[in-house]
Amino acid sequence: MTTYRKSHLTAHARRTLVLTLSAAAVAGTLAALSPAARAQAPGAAARAPGTSGPALAWGPCAGPGLPGQECAELPVPVDYRDPDGPQLPLAVSRVRSDRPAARRGTLLVIPGGPGGSGVARMVAKGKALGKEMAGAYDLVSFDPRGTGGSAKAGCGLGADDRHLVALLSWPEPGGGITENIARSRRIAEACGRHGGAVLRSMSTANEVRDIDRLRRALGEEKLSAWAASYGAYVGAVYAQKYPQHTDRWVLDSSGDPDPSRVGRGWRANMAVGADDRFPDFAAWAADPAREDEGLRLAERPQDVRPLFLALAAKLDRVPKESATKGVPLTGNRLRQALLSALGGDRLFPQLARLVRQAQDPAVRPVLPDALAGPLPDEQAAAVTATVCNDVRWPASDAVYRRAVALDRARHPLTAGLPVNVTSCAFWKNAPAQQPTRITADGPSNILMLQNRRDPATPYSGALKMRQALGGRARLVTLEHGGHEAYLGNGTACGDRAVTAFLTTGRRPERDAYCAD
Question: What is the model's pTM?
Answer without folding.
Answer: 0.92
